[in-house]
Design brief:
- This protein is of the alpha+beta class and about 40 residues long.
- It has one domain.
- It is built from one helix and three strands, in the order αβββ.
- It has a three-stranded antiparallel β-sheet with strand order 1-2-3, with helices on one face.
- The protein starts with 8 loop residues before the first helix and ends with a strand.
- The model has no long low-confidence stretch (mean pLDDT about 90).
């Protein structure tokens, strides 16, 4: 089983955009990203 390694905020956003997510958008205290009906906080 592979280990998870830390990822910076900018790298996470970049990788999620590769998978088709849009954002990040401001949602009160937290940022979120959207892909269709799926919303990641």
């Amino acid at each position: 089983m592979s280990k998870l390694s830390p990822v910076s905020h900018n790298e996470l956003v970049k990788r999620l955009r590769i998978f088709g997510f849009e954002g990040p958008f401001s949602g009160g205290k937290h940022l979120y990203m959207v892909k269709g009906n799926l919303r990641l906080l």
